[in-house]
Amino acid sequence: MSAKLSVNLNATALLRNRRDLPWPSVTGLGRIALQAGAGGLTVHPRPDQRHVRFTDLPEIRALIDDEFPDAEFNIEGYPTQDFLELAEASEPEQVTLVPDDPEQPTSDHGWDFVANGEILRAIVARLKKSGTRVSLFCDPDASEAQVAAARSTGAERVEFYTGPYGACYGDAQTAAKELEKLKNTAILANQAGLGINAGHDLTVANLPALVKAVPTLQEVSIGHGLTADALQYGMAGTVGRFLKALGS
To answer: At 103, is the pLDDT very low, low, confident or very high (cuts 50, 70, 90)?
Structure first.
């Protein structure tokens, strides 16, 4: 079965927020993405609301519940008390926990699961009480000890940070090395019983090689590259292109 595509709406929200206007519509483009075959929608509600606003979340939840009941809502972020309360109120199918500083422009590294295992265990248990699946942001070259520590938190999945791979768009040799890291970490994760998601700087061009290297990939969350393509091909056409790249 091909990996599911979750469309990250943060870049759409960022464009909307440049003006005090309701367009482009975050839910409107989310609807188009789901109509075109995306398996879900992702948001990363940062504390300063520079991308998705907190008020967007109930609207996205209602969109999925009312029109696309088979789709999933994935909320990612650093697990502050405010974030956890926001996530719990939104009842997402999946929460992806990232070790971001609030000032970071975007996620750029995975958790140190060994150092943060005890903290993460309590947070994962809290989120799972409401039936939410939990995924943890993971470095592409995580060691066996790190992967084991990730599994011990009780999380069901890890999301591979694919930024280093995505950054190799002009260097095939380096890209191959980054893919090998992802492949090796995927083997460790699967052996530990963890599902695998991936996200960051993924494109139509680099997805097929990733899928080949990590055939057990379950989901990709894509925002920047997908939104950039949508300016040229439209949201529906772009979702179709990404699904084809995933082998769907």
So the answer is: low
For the segment 33-87, what is each residue's pLDDT rounded down to a tens digit? 999 999 999 999 999 999 999 999 999 999 999 999 999 999 999 999 999 999 9
pLDDT at 32: 98
The CATH number of the domain covering residues in 4-246: 3.20.20.70
Vertex 33 angle, CA 90 and 241, to 5°: 140
Residue 207 scores a pLDDT above 70: yes
User: Which residues are marked as active site?
Assistant: 44, 76, 200
